[in-house]
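Lab manual, section 2.4: Encoding a predicted structure.

Procedure: take the sequence of the chain (275 residues), apply the prediction step described in section 2.3, and record the output as structure tokens. A sample record is shown.
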Amino acid sequence: MSEDPHGERHWSKHTEYLKSLITAENSAIISDFDGTLSAFDPRPDGARIHHRSQSALDRLNEAGVRIALISGRAAADLYSRFPRDEIIYYGNHGFERWRGGADGPNPDEDSARAAITTLIDALDFSDLPGVITEPKGLTATIHYRLAPNPAEVGHTIEHRLRPLTDSLGLRISPGQMIWDIKPAEPIDKGTALRSVVNECGLRSVIFLGDDVTDLDAMDVLRDMTVNAADLRGVSIGVVHPDSGPPDLADHCTYFADGIDDVADFLTWLADCVRT
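Recorded output:
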């Protein structure tokens, strides 16, 4: 395990409680993908789940722990990177649901797709080297990790996006060297997490995430555990040395130190359910 920069809030300092969560009836792991289960890749198609996290999630799934993934990726794309019929997948920040090959679209899918298509057609970043536009159907992401000056380019992208998104009824949010573009409906990773908890009748939840959009899920889980006597849960904030939301500590319960530490954590959880 790498050196812990977060003292008493590192997950390894709370193993007794975490073991009680994962071994409880109706327990679940709900996780983000990029930056949590997969290392960041400057090109969206390059992301791959960490091999030890994949193995640990398979073991947890076989032991009866519910697994759900909630990502900004399109649901079909997310499924293709870790295809398991038992897993629940929410893509496009909660706007798409995929389980057992069945895709449950948002009721306003047609209008959302049309707005995103219009936006993509209007964008021109050819003068900004290293910028990648990723259409995802119901949403889109603009990546600038490969830009020569990411901070400056990020501001330029935002300046160009806002007039277009405002006119099309879309919203944008920052991430780790990305801008996410989404429909205006109040759907996010938090609403997706709430749906998984309610659908599965969960009593114990561990959520993992690393980026701005994951904070919504962390907040919803915290509120649900406060207001429901029969639900316990914690959020694990995944820390990266040079990126991530500055207020992550205000939203998560415990920390993991990057994706290798996430793999350590999930492997330890899988060992818990086998003992």
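Check your result against the sample. The two ends are 22 Å apart (CA to CA).
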